[in-house]
Design brief:
Layout (H helix, E strand, L loop, with lengths): L7 H6 L8 H11 L8 H18 L14
Length: 72
């Protein structure tokens, strides 16, 4: 059996520690982010939107803004 040493100060700063079996952690992490599977026209539309956005970014057509008022 391995021994684990934890700093009390670090635990207090991070507001606690959770110890889970790896299998349970994997199940929780899979359910944390919803997974969507698109098919047909919805999938093609999304692929087009992403490829257009990546192309715009690569050609420098995107800019960083701090608020929506910077779009004017």
């Amino acid at each position: 059996m391995a021994t684990i040493t934890l700093s009390k100060n670090k635990i207090m700063r991070q507001k606690g520690v959770v110890v889970l079996p790896l299998e349970e952690y994997n199940k929780l992490s899979e359910r944390a982010v919803p997974e969507y599977h698109l098919a047909g026209k919805a999938a093609r539309d999304l692929d087009t939107l992403v490829s257009d956005g990546l192309r715009d970014y690569a050609t420098g057509k995107c800019r960083r803004i701090k608020s929506l008022s910077d779009l004017d």
